[in-house]
Design goal:
668 residues; alpha+beta
């Protein structure tokens, strides 16, 4: 296999040459425009996409739709209803309409369900499609543009009369009964519907008590591939499979296409089943060993659309892949590869074999979109530049948008280098080190070890304003990919399977030792912090080492047993750790920051969303109480109404100010 290894080269975040360049400030967190969801026109003439920004006055986030011309002649905003947001923009097959999803109400309509809207490209007002009962979460056009396949959540039963506002008991009978951002789950399902655009008639395409996702029409429009778990008590299994529904025979039982006991195209990957141009094959993403749950590496697979043997075509690539799409001639398949701090675009023959890099570099590439005439666009970011839409034209990247260029040009940015070092047991660990904008070589500065969540994720060669703000405050920032991280293969990720707070602690401490050895980190002025698993690994680390002067632990858990039945991880707990009443030793072993919190001397700030179901508030409350009871300096900050990710703009800046205030007081 041809596979170019990434050089551990210097990643210099170039500062602007303007004399008035300034350092990043907390307020800049809200100035970054979050560009996403690109879709290229069928003729390749333009790309439609979303831009999410913070509405400071209303203390909310809004997302609107923009259009960028392929020839670089400019971009323009297509939607701008105050206080309303739009998502998932897509061109109709003839390019005359841009569809999108929005919860904004139609005229004289108070319905809050997410609806599918059409915006005529030639001009005019957007309008919602009639005849759809329930909330639309996804959709796809038929190739001839006459029909849509919709993913629609069952509507809530409507109450009438004097009792319509009276609360009712919450009745639970599901195995997985919670989800972050939703709360308690009822028994409504997300189902497939076939919609005729001319008549406005919607017909339920599939039956059964199942959730269905990621619909994709065949090139001839006669079949629809989708993903589901169509068996009883499906939440106890990772076994997603591909199915085929007959678009001409509404209500017929779908045909199961794959049978692997793990996940064939898990919806969480966001990767749609990709039909070959002749409709004979479907490319999709298959996970590895289901016993490894999130540690398993995803692979690119093919299956005949008529049924037959499933085949892995990236078996030799020990890296996660996502978002496959075919070349126009059907000979090759392109896909995104996650590899050692970057994401790039690769390709492979449909027959398998050597993997070729298409678009790469010290950057992150995501969300590829290709037109009927072969034009390709995607999102990309690098350490000096927030995400924008790029055309991939004649083998080179060309920016189509510049929503963040003015902001980036204002800033004197921190400098980033790649790092590589040996952990305690000799394992090579890699990461990044950012120094302050005015850093002088050979100077020891206060340093923050910033830990990512997941744990199955990676820090990447992209732009991160949070780290830039920390660097601007005078801190060096270590952001490393310890074992448990993705991007370095399955064995590297699975090294902490049922062993949280073990070798990953050794790896992040080795990263600190490396920064000290480089003469950058002052060993007497060290801080540590992270969110989600980053907060958990913060707790593990300060319970293992006393060198840190201050810690920030966000949305973390230390008494892991307290998460069982209170957070939304249940299947994952059962597989990785076993039932607590049968395997108590494993649960106690990874809960040592709570049960042995007497080892912790580091002043620690705990932070969490008040409505977090991913890692509930009680987990942070327990650790706060443990340290407070022992007289260790600590504080707990709860953000009301926030889920696992902090979204409200005022809370985003408040959190950053509190991080900096804590580190300034304890570390500097």
């Amino acid at each position: 296999m041809r596979y170019a290894a990434l050089a551990l080269a210097l990643l210099v975040t170039t500062a602007p040459t303007l004399a008035e360049a300034r350092k990043a400030e907390v307020a800049d967190l809200l100035k970054v425009a979050r560009v996403g969801n690109p879709d290229i026109a069928p003729d390749g003439s333009a790309v439609v996409y979303t831009v999410a920004t913070a509405d400071i006055e209303k203390d909310a986030n809004v997302s609107h739709i923009w259009l960028a011309a392929w020839d670089g002649s400019g971009k323009r905003q297509l939607t701008n209803r105050p206080g309303e947001s739009e998502s998932a923009p897509r061109f109709s097959p003839d390019g005359s309409v841009i569809a999108f999803i929005s919860s904004r109400a139609a005229k004289d309509d108070e319905d809050s369900d997410a609806r599918l809207w059409f915006l005529p490209r030639a001009g005019g007002e957007a309008y919602p499609l009639p005849g759809i009962n329930g909330s639309v979460s996804d959709y796809a056009f038929s190739p001839d543009g006459k029909k849509l396949v919709l993913v629609v959540e069952d509507p809530k039963p409507k109450k009438e009369g004097k009792d319509k506002d009276r609360p009712e008991p919450i009745v639970i009978d599901r195995y997985r009964f919670k989800r972050d951002g939703t709360g308690y789950l009822d028994n409504r399902r997300e189902r497939l519907w076939l919609y005729d655009i001319a008549s406005g008639k919607a017909e339920r395409l599939t039956d059964g008590d199942y959730d269905e996702a990621l619909p994709s029409f065949s090139p001839d429009g006669t079949r629809i591939a989708f993903v589901s778990r169509r068996f009883p008590d499906a939440e106890r299994s990772p076994d997603f499979n591909l199915f085929i529904a007959d678009a001409a025979n509404v209500g017929a039982t779908p045909r199961q296409l794959t049978s692997y006991p793990g996940a064939d195209n898990d919806p969480s990957t966001g990767s749609y089943p990709a039909w070959s141009p002749d409709g004979s094959q479907i490319a999709y993403i298959r996970t590895g060993d289901p016993k490894l749950i999130w540690y398993a590496v995803n692979a690119l697979a093919l299956v005949p659309s008529a049924g037959g043997e499933e085949r892995i075509v990236t078996a030799s690539l020990d890296r996660n892949v996502t978002e496959p799409f075919w070349s126009a001639d059907g000979r090759t398949i392109n896909f995104i590869v996650e590899d050692d701090g970057v994401q790039r675009l690769d390709s492979v023959s449909a027959k398998g074999g050597a993997i070729t890099q298409v678009a790469s570099g010290e950057r992150v590439i995501t969300s590829p979109t290709v037109s009927a005439n072969g034009r390709l666009a995607f999102l990309s970011s690098d350490p000096a530049s927030p995400t924008e839409v790029f055309a991939f034209d004649k083998g080179k990247m060309r920016a189509l948008t510049d929503h963040n260029s003015a902001l980036a040009a204002e800033l004197d940015l921190g400098k980033v280098v790649r790092t590589s070092f040996k952990s305690k047991d000799g394992t090579e660990v890699r990461g990044f080190l950012m120094t302050p904008p005015d850093y002088k070589e050979g100077t020891k500065v206060p340093t923050i070890l910033h830990i990512h969540g997941g744990p199955t994720a990676q820090f990447e060669a992209d732009f991160d304003m949070m780290r830039q703000v920390m660097a601007a405050r005078g801190y060096a920032v270590i952001f490393v990919n310890p074992r448990g991280s993705t991007g370095r293969g399955e064995a590297f990720a699975a090294a902490i399977n049922a062993a949280w707070g073990s070798v990953d602690v050794e790896d992040v401490l080795a990263a600190v030792d490396d920064a000290v050895a480089r003469g950058v980190a002052d060993p007497d002025r060290l801080g540590i912090g992270g969110w989600s698993y980053g907060g958990m690994l913060t707790n593990y680390t300060i319970a293992s080492d006393k060198r840190f002067k201050g810690a920030v632990s966000g949305a973390s858990i230390s008494n892991v047993l307290s998460g069982y039945g209170t957070d939304h991880y249940v299947y994952e707990y059962d597989v990785e750790l076993g039932y607590p009443w049968e395997n108590r030793e494993a649960w106690d072993r990874i809960s040592y920051p709570f049960f042995h919190n007497d080892r912790i001397v580091t002043p620690t700030l705990f932070m969490v969303g008040g409505s977090d179901v991913n890692v509930p508030t009680l987990a942070s409350e327990q650790m706060y109480q443990a340290l407070r009871s022992r007289g260790i300096e600590t504080k707990l900050v709860i953000y009301p109404g926030e889920s696992h990710g902090i979204r409200r703009p005022s809370f985003v800046t408040d959190r950053m100010e509190r991080w900096l205030g804590w580190f300034d007081a304890k570390v500097k």
